[in-house]
Design a protein that fits this description.
The complex is a heterodimer of chains A (148) and B (410). Chain A has one domain: Sufe protein. Chain: A (Alpha-Beta Complex), CATH 3.90.1010.10. Helix content of chain A is 43%, strand content 17%. Chain A has 4 helices and 3 strands; from the N terminus they run H-E-E-E-H-H-H. The radius of gyration of chain A is 15 Å and the shape is globular. With 410 residues, chain B is an alpha/beta fold. Chain B is 38% helix and 16% strand. Classes of the chains: A alpha+beta (148), B alpha/beta (410). At the A-B interface, helix 1 of A face helix 11 and helix 13 of B. Bound molecules: pyridoxal-5'-phosphate.
Chain lengths: 148, 410
């Protein structure tokens, strides 16, 4: 049996087993819960904002390796970014997972995320990878609505 | 039972993906179909396709006879005395909804209680939630033991004078638990309540006898018992069905119609509005013939053997937790389990590489998952076409999956 795996690459397993920014921020400026009704995966994300930037983020995903790794990578990709930048980052990711985008188009700081491209061939699992990103979007939307 | 010669009856089991056969272990979700069932659909469409109940010409009569003939087969299959008690629906879910809408809205009111269990499939939970919310009724739940059986010790305090309806799954699609429907039905009837049982998982796998079961309504689906999708059955006690208002209005369910009113058709057609799923009902008839040809006792014994083997085999896998009653006589042919450190979705994806088809998820049982303190399980479910080799393939594939995950240290 080969040591590498197209889908469960080492980088995915590493993020899954040692997720970055794992946990819950208390207190938090934003607290949002995402659920995948198909499989029951859940993801709780908390944010601290500072002057329109994501000063800190913690996530608490309960689910498969794909969803945990994706969540961990998401936190790396958006921490320190302004909400607009974070928004653009999420869109780039979704463009790769759900649209015609490829991993090559991702910016350098999203390098690890390339590994998730393998999920694209498994339609039933794409939702696992996208859940936390959608949850983050929802959290950011709440912030914008509060501003109005 | 020697099942090997049956395998040839199932075209899909001859299929290979990437040069390997399919190990189908998801019959609790839907079963595979034997050639005889597929052929019955072709025969109908090619030979006597016509609408039922109205045509006077030959092929119309043939279609009506075939369609109504299946009703008799269903009645015989479950020990019902009267074909008026057999209503064709789309699936078990619709059958339960028929009871909730038609019987429920007529008989359940403010302060009444509906008794269920925490192991119900969403299809035997949500219709009652809707009914209770609309009517101001309350849902109550029979307690469960740690081994996945029902705790009937407190039955008398759960089923009370206020109870209008009790609905319990005959066989759990997660734990495999076979529930003592008769005992619960007796408690329901003692307080004048109506007993419903969800037989979606039991009808395919054991000899059903609705009289012995004691339930007033029984629901199940064709597609889980070798038949086509799109057909379900509601068995109902005649006097209850007679007193119930129709569920869906339209053609076929009426005797006479005026501009402002209508007179309902006799049972069972009162509950079958519009053109029914003629072809698939006929296909379902072929599925029942097939099951009868083998014998439900034989099917059940085979599944007990396979399940026993699977429990033994999976017990050897380190870090594997199984759910449900330990005694195979008390459970159906399925095993829900989890592997330490491998989420069931990842496991199912990895097993799929070996063409081992298992289900991973909440199995439409969110409340039960919460109670078991898991977010999901993997589930292997068996039917008459599964062999010990299928179980071996499952066990080997699980070990391979674990290796993939063990590659990176925590
Ligand atoms: C116990 C149980 N009840 C009800 C159902 C619903 O069956 P259907 O989807 O055919 O209506 C299922 C199917 O998964 C089941 O396992």
């Amino acid at each position: 049996m080969s040591l590498s795996d197209d889908l469960y690459r080492d980088i995915i397993l590493e993020h899954h087993k040692n997720p970055h920014h794992y946990g819950t921020l208390e207190p938090a400026d934003v607290s949002v819960e995402g659920v995948n009704p198909l499989c029951g995966d859940e993801c709780h994300i908390t944010l601290k904002l500072d002057d329109g930037r994501i000063a800190d983020i913690k996530a608490n995903p309960r689910g498969c390796a794909i969803s945990r790794a994706s969540t961990s990578m998401m936190t790396d990709a958006v921490i320190g970014k302004s909400l607009e930048e974070a928004h653009a980052t999420v869109q780039k990711f979704k463009h790769m997972m759900l649209g015609p985008g490829t991993a090559d188009e991702l910016p350098e700081e999203m390098e690890d995320i390339e590994a998730l491209e393998g999920v694209k061939v498994l339609p039933a699992r794409i939702k696992c990878a996208v859940l936390s990103w959608d949850t983050l979007l929802e959290g950011m939307r709440e912030v914008e609505q509060k501003k109005d | 039972m020697n099942v090997y010669h049956l395998l040839n009856d199932f075209p899909i089991l001859q299929r290979e993906i990437n040069g390997k056969r399919i190990v189908y272990l998801d019959s609790a979700a839907t079963s595979q179909k034997p050639r005889q069932v597929i052929q019955a659909l072709v025969d109908y469409y090619e030979g006597y396709n016509a609408n039922v109940h109205r045509a006077v010409y030959k092929i119309g009569e043939e279609a009506t006879q075939a369609y109504e003939g299946v009703r008799q087969k269903v009645a015989d299959f479950i020990g019902a005395k009267d074909t008026g008690s057999i209503i064709f629906t789309r699936n078990a879910t619709e059958a339960i909804n028929l009871v909730a809408y038609s019987w429920g809205r007529e008989n359940v009111g403010e302060g009444d209680e509906i008794v269920l269990t925490p192991m119900e499939h969403h299809s035997n939970l949500v219709p009652w939630q809707l009914l209770a919310a609309e009517r101001g009724a309350t849902l109550k739940f029979i307690e469960m033991n740690a081994d996945g059986t029902l705790d009937l010790g407190g039955l008398d305090s759960t089923i009370t004078e206020r109870t209008k309806l009790v609905s319990v799954t005959h066989m759990s699609n997660v734990l495999g638990t076979i529930n003592p429907i008769r005992q619960i039905a007796d408690a329901a009837h003692a307080v004048g309540a109506v007993m419903v049982t969800d037989a979606a998982q039991s009808a395919p796998h054991l000899a059903l006898d609705v009289e012995a079961l004691g339930a007033d309504f029984v629901a199940f689906s064709s597609h889980k018992m070798l038949g086509p999708t799109g057909v379900g059955v509601l068995y109902g006690r005649r006097d209850l069905l007679e007193a119930m208002p129709p569920f869906i209005g339209g053609g076929d369910m009426i005797k006479q119609v005026w501009l402002d009113r209508a007179k309902w058709n006799d049972l069972p057609w009162k509950f079958e509005a519009g053109t029914p799923n003629i072809a698939d009902v006929i296909g379902f008839g072929a599925a029942l013939d097939y099951l009868n040809g083998i014998g439900m006792e034989v099917v059940r014994r085979h599944e007990i053997e396979i399940t026993e083997y699977a429990l033994r085999k999976l017990r050897e896998v380190e870090g594997l937790t199984m759910y449900g009653p330990a005694n195979v006589e008390n459970r159906g042919g399925l095993v829900s389990f989890n592997i330490e450190d491998v989420h069931p979705h990842d496991l199912a994806t990895l097993l799929d590489r070996d063409n081992v088809c298992v289900r991973a998820g909440h199995h439409c049982c969110h409340p039960l998952m919460r109670m078991m303190e898991v977010s999901a399980t993997a589930r292997a479910s068996f039917y008459l076409y599964n062999t010990p080799e299928d179980v071996d393939a499952l066990a080997e594939s699980i070990l391979r999956a674990r290796e993939v995950f063990a590659r990176v240290a925590v």
